[in-house]
Amino acid sequence: MAEVSLKVNGKVENHEVGENTLLVDFIRETVGLTGTHVGCDTSQCGACVVHVDGVSVKACTMLAMQAEGSEVTTIEGIGSSEKLHPMQEAFHENHGLQCGFCTPGMVMSAIELVSKNKSPSEAEIRDGLEGNICRCTGYHNIVKSVQAGAEKMGG
Amino acid sequence: MYSTKIVKAENSSAAVQAIGSSKEGKILAGGMTLIPTLKQRLANPDCLIDISSCGLEGVEDKGSSVRIGAMTKHAAVAESSSVAKAIPALADLAGGIGDRQVRNRGTLGGSVANNDPAACYPSAVMALDGTVHTNKRDISADDFFKGMFETALEEDEVIESVSFKKPEKACYMKFPNPASRYAMVGVFVAKFSDGVRVAVTGAGEEGVFRHSDLESALSSNFSEEAVSGVEVSSDGLMSDIHASADYRANLIGEMTKRAVSS
Question: CA A134, CA A18: separation in Å to the nearest integer?
Answer without folding.
Answer: 32
